[in-house]
Design goal:
Blueprint: E1 2-8, H1 31-47, E2 53-56, H2 60-76, E3 84-86, H3 110-125, H4 135-152, E4 158-163, H5 165-176, H6 183-188, E5 195-201, E6 204-212, H7 214-217
Parallel strand pairs: 1-4, 2-3, 2-4
Antiparallel strand pairs: 1-5, 5-6
Helix pairs in contact: 1-2
C-alpha cells in the first residue's frame, strides 16, 4: 500500500490568474501563501517521517509551494527529504472564456467573479471550446499525471504532490463519481495549502480525506483562505 498526499498551492498573487505573462521576478505566492506552505510542511512532518517522491505542476505558485513545504518538512525530518520533480500534467486548467468577456471591475467582488467563472466552467465541461484545451483533454492530461504519481506510490512509498484546487478536486470527483458539471463546487471549497490524502492499493485509489486545513484554520494560526 502506498500513500499520496495532494497539497493545494498557497495563496497566489492576482497576476497568477491573469492571461498576461507575469514579470520574470514575480513571486509565485503572496507572503501569506509562503506562510501557508510552511505550516503545511510542518503539519506533514507531524504526520509522516519521510517522502519517497515529491512532484509539483509547472506553475510558479505550485513550484513555490512545493519548495516551501519541503523546506519546512526538512527542518523536522532532514533525512526524509526526496528529490523534487516537475510534472506539467498537474497544472491547473486555463480559465475558460468568461461570458460577456472580462471587465475592469470583475475581480472587485469575489462572489460576483465566482458566479461568472462558474458559468464559464459549466459551458466548458459541457463541451464548449472556450479554453486552450477541451475539458476532455484536461481530464486526460491530469488523469495521466495521477497515473504517474500512482506508479511512484508503490508499496510502502509516500508521495507528495502539489497542484491546484481544480486539478485535485477533478481527480477526487472522478474517484467519487461526481458529475463533471458538479465538480467546480468541490474546487470552490478547497482551502489554500490544504491536504488531501489518497491510499493506493491493489483495488486502486481510495480517498481517505480531502481538504484538511485544521493546521491553517486554528485560531492561533489564522491562515486559512480560499483565494
Amino acid at each position: 500500500m502506498g500513500v499520496l498526499y495532494l497539497v493545494r498551492h498557497g495563496q497566489a498573487p492576482m497576476h497568477a490568474y491573469s492571461s498576461e505573462p507575469a514579470a520574470p521576478d514575480a513571486p509565485g505566492l503572496t507572503d501569506l501563501g509562503f506562510a501557508q506552505a510552511r505550516h503545511t510542511g510542518l503539519e506533514l512532518a507531524r504526520q509522516v517521517p519521510e517522502f519517497t517522491a515529491a512532484v509539483s505542476g509547472d506553475l510558479p505558485r505550485q513550484r513555490a509551494t512545493l519548495d516551501g513545504v519541503l523546506a519546512a518538512f526538512g527542518e523536522v525530518h532532514p533525512a526524509g527529504l526526496p528529490a523534487s520533480a516537475v510534472d506539467p500534467g498537474w497544472d491547473e486548467y486555463v480559465i475558460p472564456a468568461l461570458p460577456g468577456g472580462p471587465s475592469p471591475d470583475l475581480y472587485d467582488t469575489p462572489a460576483g467573479y465566482q458566479q461568472v467563472l462558474d458559468a464559464a466552467l459549466l459551458r466548458w465541461t459541457a463541451g464548449a471550446a472556450d479554453s486552450v484545451e477541451s475539458y476532455a483533454e484536461y481530464v486526460a492530461r491530469t488523469g495521466a499525471a495521477a497515473d504517474r504519481a500512482v506508479e511512484l506510490a508503490g508499496s510502502g512509498q509516500t508521495v507528495l504532490v502539489v497542484s491546484s484546487a481544480g486539478t485535485i478536486t477533478a481527480l477526487v470527483a472522478r474517484l467519487w463519481g461526481v458529475p463533471a458539471e458538479s465538480w467546480p463546487a468541490l474546487a470552490r471549497a478547497m482551502v489554500n495549502a490544504s491536504i488531501t490524502k489518497l491510499i493506493v492499493g491493489r483495488r486502486g485509489i481510495t480517498v481517505v480525506s480531502t481538504n484538511e486545513h485544521g493546521h491553517l484554520a486554528a485560531t492561533d494560526v489564522g491562515l486559512a483562505t480560499f483565494r
